[in-house]
Structures are given as C-alpha cells and as structure tokens.
Amino acid sequence: MARKIVIVGAGQVGFYLAKTLSEEHYDITIIDIDAQKCKRAREHLDAMVIEGHGAQGNVLAQANTAAADLFIAVTRMDEINIVACMKARKMNPKVRTIARVRSDDYVDPNNLLDLKAEGIDMIINPERTAALEIQQLVQNAIAQEIMPYADGRLFMVALTPTAESDLMNHSLREIGKMFTELPFRTVAIDRDGQTIIPQGDHIFQEGDKIFVMCKRERLDAMYQICGYRREKKLNTVMILGAGKLGRLVAGFLKDDFNVRLVDKDEHRLDRVSKKLPDVLLLSGDGMDVDFLDSEGIKDIDAFISVTNDETTNLFSGLIAKRKGAQKVIVHISTPDYIPLVKGLGISSVVSKNLTSVDAIMRYVLRGRIHSVMMLEGIDTEIIELSPSENSPIVGIPLKDVDFPKDAVVGAVIHPEGLEIGTGTTVLGPEDRVLVFTRPNKLANVEALFN
C-alpha cells in the first residue's frame, strides 16, 4: 500500500511537491481554501483535492489525517502551517510533520513557542534555503548551477566549457586516457535543449552545458580542464530587492564581497540599515537603465535580482547582462518558467519554491532511497540511494554491472570517504550512491539496487 501524505497548500510549493510525490506513487491528498488552486490541482494532479481551511479539524478529518504517514503544511501563512501541523499531530501521534515557516521569530531559540516540542518534525524556511544556494553560486563564480552533497564535501556543478577547453571534440573515453586521474564525472549534457546521459563514445561539443560531480578540493582542477585556467574572483555584488530574500543574501555575502543592496522603497531601506550597517544601500529602480549606468553596472561582478516580482527580476537581469555584469542570478517563483529563462542566457536561476521542495524531498524519502530531485531544464533526475545487501550490484566493479543505458553513477559516499564514480567503483550496502537518470529509467535503477 502506498504511503499516505496530506499536503496543506496548493500554491507553487504545494502543487509542485504533490506533483513530484505522486510521480513517486504516494497516495496524495491536497487541501486549499482557494477554489481556483483546487481546480488547477484537480485538472493536473493525481491526488485527492479538498477545498477548505487546512487548519480546521473537520477539513483535516475529511482528508483522513489520522491515517497519514506524513503531513506537510506549505501555505503562505506561517500561523496556518503551524496550527495545521499541531492539530495533525493531535489527531495522529505517529504522523511526521513538516511546516513551511518564513518568520525568523518562530525559529528564534528564545521564542516562547518551541515548534519541535509542539510536534513539528521539520521546519522549511524558503528564503533561507534559496539564499544559501545563491551564496554558493557567488562563491563559485564559474558555476551556472551548484548543489552540495555530503555536508559540502561533494558538489554537482553545471557549467559551459570554453571553446579552448581540453574537452572540446574529444569523447569521454578519450578524456579518460588524456588524464591519469580525472577530477570529475560528467553525468549529463544539455545540448541545444536536448538532454544526453553520456556514455564513453559521447563527444563534447562547443556550447554544451555539462553537469559534473566533483569533490570540493578538486573544483579548481575541474574548472581548468573545462577551460577556465583560474577561478573567477568576484568582488562587487549588486542585489536588487531588499525584501527578506535580498536581506538574507546580503547578510551571507557582506563579509566576503563588496555588497550593494538596491530597492526603490526608501522606508524599507531605512529599516534594513539598522540590520545591515556594513552594506551599501541604494535607493533606485532596477529597471531604470540610467540608474544602473550611474551605479557602474558594467563593472559589477555579480548582479542578483530577488524582488517579489519575477518580471522585474527577469528584465533587470537581462539589462544587467547586456550592460556587462559578469554573473547574473535571478529569482523566479514559477517553476514552469525556469527552462524558458535559462534559454535567454541568464547565468543562473534560483527558485525558493523549488529549493523548498528539494529540501522536503530529502526528508520524505527514507530507507534505501534518500532523495529524488529533478534538474530543471533538462530531462534528468538525481536519485540518492543505497543498495540492499542482496542487490546484484554489491561487491562487483560498476563496469561489470548491466546498468540502464540512460543512467550513470556520479559519485559514491562511502562510510570511509567519497569517490567519484568510475568503472572500477565497487558498491556496498552502507554506501549512498548518487545516480543521474532519465525519469523513465528511475524504476529500473531502483530495481537494480533492491
């Protein structure tokens, strides 16, 4: 029987989460008070949809919360999420609960309300998770996307090798012979909108966006092989939007970079000045080309647009890119827009909604499967899982395993250390294995590990 999950909130986070979980064959019930959101969910999701207030007992009873294995509240209102989770725990003491909580006040250790003591197992702060992702992208200037694993000791990095790269016009097999110890594993290629899970005979071409697994200490070596003879060093960062996400990003970056925080709301900037006294605050419109020129946009190393309006984020990012900003990062709320935005040449796209879903998915999938995540813009998923003791892949080199064609082992987190996946890699039941696969091969990969 499929595990039952109740989700309160059918907005961007709840909808995308329900979609992802239903594809993993969970029994999903989704609740929202908004009739239009419920209509959208009924039309597009394989889930039971209930129109009602997610913190009311009769609605939770209608959703059969008493039988749920997991209860997730992700509305835009912290108080509704908290109360809904507390009521769910009262109705079902065994249920695990996750709440989306944006206000720092509720997670302050001095707060009189201890959420964990009230039965909330996991708290998701969307802005904080997105701000941490942006920090990683600024600190790794060449990366277009970056995702840490193993407490930051291992990274999935997406980048476009230069035309002068050692990779150009060579196959993976040839590259393996050229370097005695290749510091990374290429796990996917985005070529003109087409996704390739590369095998040994695949040849790198100019314009390819490649996805690689690399240990932290080998990042510089990987960048050099990809044609970046030394890591770009960013200094000046301009952040558009002094809302919560912008303030968090500025706070994370201010000690290592020259940060300018821009917003057209002078009252908001006045409030921010008390919390970020070391950050240069500028009153202006990020869509005003004259303003950007006057602030030296052509000399800005990284332009980060994180206002609450994704249209402003997109167009200001395009202006900054056209004016010469080295790296442009924009925040997009709607997941469906992300592949379109990437096609416009924006360096990196971040979505607090997607980072929230990824964080929840890492928690939801327990047992042999630790997480499943989709890479936006390409037809690839990352599954992190451990083989069972009886799996046919345990104890033999990967080169001798009949692995699905459109799947590849990127890296292995052994109990004793990390290993980038190669043909000589041997797996054990205590290992955590990162596999990159097309969605239609996911079931084959899971079966191989069982």
Any overview of this molecule?
It is built from 15 helices and 22 strands. By secondary structure, the chain is α/β, with parallel strands linked by helices. It has 4 domains: 4-124, NAD(P)-binding Rossmann-like Domain (Rossmann fold, 3-Layer(aba) Sandwich); 141-225, Alpha-Beta Plaits; 235-355, NAD(P)-binding Rossmann-like Domain (Rossmann fold, 3-Layer(aba) Sandwich), CATH 3.40.50; 366-449, 2-Layer Sandwich (Alpha-Beta Plaits). The two termini are 18 Å apart. The mean pLDDT is 88.
The CATH architecture term of the largest domain is 3-Layer(aba) Sandwich
The tally of strands reads: 22
> Span between N and C termini?
18 Å
Number of helices: 15
Please state the structural category.
Answer: alpha/beta
Overall number of domains? 4
Major sheet details:
6 strands, parallel
In CATH, what is the homologous superfamily of the largest domain? NAD(P)-binding Rossmann-like Domain
Low-confidence spans: none
> What does the overall shape look like?
globular
Helix content: 25-40%
What is the percentage of strand-forming residues? 25-35%
CATH class of the largest domain: Alpha Beta
- Roughly how many Å is the radius of gyration? 23 Å
Q: What is the residue-averaged pLDDT?
A: 88
Looking at the structure, the CATH topology of the largest domain is Rossmann fold
The largest sheet has its strands arranged as: 3-2-1-4-5-6
